[in-house]
Amino acid sequence: IIWDKKKMEKPTPSIYQSKINTTDRISWRKIACYIGYILFLRKRIRKQNYEKLIVFTVVPAIMISDLLLNQYDGKYVLDIRDDSILRRWFSKRIQKIASKAKNLVVSSPYYFKWLGRDGILNHNANEKIIERELSYEPIASKKETVCIMYAGMMREADINNQVLERLVDDTKYNFVFYGPINDQLISLKKKYEGKTNVSFPGIYNKEDIYSIYRTRADLINILRSKNTVNAEALPNKLYEAAIAGVPVIAFAHNTAVAEYVKKYNLGIIINNLQELNAEDDLIVALHNLDSFEYKKGRQDFLNKVRQDNLLFIRSISAFVSEEI
C-alpha cells in the first residue's frame, strides 16, 4: 500500500494518489494529504484483512499503531529507513510498536537506541552492484589539485556555501555539484557559477554514479549539518563512494558516518569547517591516506554490508513463509 506523491503510478486499489511537493514546508494541504493517506491505509488494511504486515517508516507505524498492537501483535515487521520528528513526540508509542514487532529492521544501528530493542541492520546498498564492483582496485590520489564532488539532491547548501567561501579562491581545489535543480542548488549556482573551479553539470543517470566518481572525484562530499537526524543516519552517498572506491570527507558530528569512516578507513573526518582554513591541509590529509588500509577497509566494509543484508533477506523470507 503506497502513497504516490507525484501521481506517476497507474492507479490501483493499493495506491493512494495525492500530489504534494515533498520539499514544501508544512501546510494545511500537506496535512490534509497525510490525513487522507492514513484513512486510506487503515481502510485498506481492514478491508483486506491481511495475515501479516511489513510497515515502513515511523509515521505510518504510529498512525496505525492501534491495529498493529491489537490485531497484528507479533505479526508485523517494522522497517525504519529514516528518522522522524514524530518519534520524539511519540517515543513511548514507537518503542511499544517496536517491542511487539516480529522483526525490527533499521538502516542505521543508531536507531536501535530510540527504538528500545535490537534487530536487523539492512544497508541501503544493492547486492548485485557490490558484487560487480567489489574487485575494482581503487587508485590513490596524489594529484596536486583535488576535486571535491557532491552528487544528488542538494540539501546542504549552507554547509557547501561555507566550504566554498573558505576554499573557492584556491585553484588547487575544484568543486563539482551534480544533481537536479532545486532552490538550494540555485542559490549556490547564482553565487559561484562564475568561478572557473566550480561546476554544475546537472542531473546524471543513477547507474553512472560509480564511473562519474572514479573519473572526476578525489573526495566525495558527505558533509552534513549538525542535528540528531544527520548524526544517526547512514546516507546512500557513503555506500556509493565505497562501491566506487573513492574516499569521503565527513564531519565528526555526523556520528554514524564518522564511526564507519574511521573503522574502515574510508576517508577524512574533520571536526569543523575551520579546519579547512589551514593551507593545503586537506590535500595533505588525502595524500596521507594509506592506500593499503583504504583498500582493505573498503573490502571489509562492503563484505560486512553483504553479510548484514543477507541476514535481512533470510529474516524476511522466514517471516513471509512462516505459518500464522
How would you portray this structure in words?
The protein is globular, with a radius of gyration of 22 Å. Helix 8 packs parallel to helix 9 (183-192) and helix 10 (209-216) crosses helix 12. It starts with a strand and ends with a helix. With 324 residues, the protein is an alpha/beta fold. A six-stranded parallel beta sheet has the order 9-8-7-10-11-12, with helices on both faces. A four-stranded parallel beta sheet has the order 3-4-5-6, sandwiched between helices. A two-stranded parallel ribbon has the order 1-2. The mean pLDDT is 91. The protein has helices at residues 28-48, 58-63, 65-70, 86-89, 91-100, 111-115, 127-133, 157-167, 183-192, 209-216, 228-232, 236-244, 255-264, 281-287, 291-321; strands spanning 2-4, 15-17, 53-56, 76-80, 103-106, 120-121, 146-151, 173-178, 198-202, 219-221, 248-251, 267-270. Helix 6 links the parallel strand 5 (103-106) and strand 6 (120-121).
The separation of the N and C termini measures: 21 Å
In helices, the fraction of residues equals: 40-55%
Global geometry? globular
Number of strands: 12
Beta-strand percentage? 15-25%
Helices, by number, come to 15
User: Kindly state the mean pLDDT as a whole number?
Assistant: 91
Which stretches are poorly predicted, pLDDT < 50 over at least 5 residues?
none
Write the H/E string, N to C. Answer: EEHEHHEHHEHEHEHEHEHEHHEHEHH
How many whole angstroms does the radius of gyration measure? 22 Å
Derived structural class: alpha/beta
Oligomeric description of these chains: single chain
Q: What does the main sheet amount to? A: 6 strands, parallel
Give the spatial strand order of the biggest sheet. Answer: 9-8-7-10-11-12
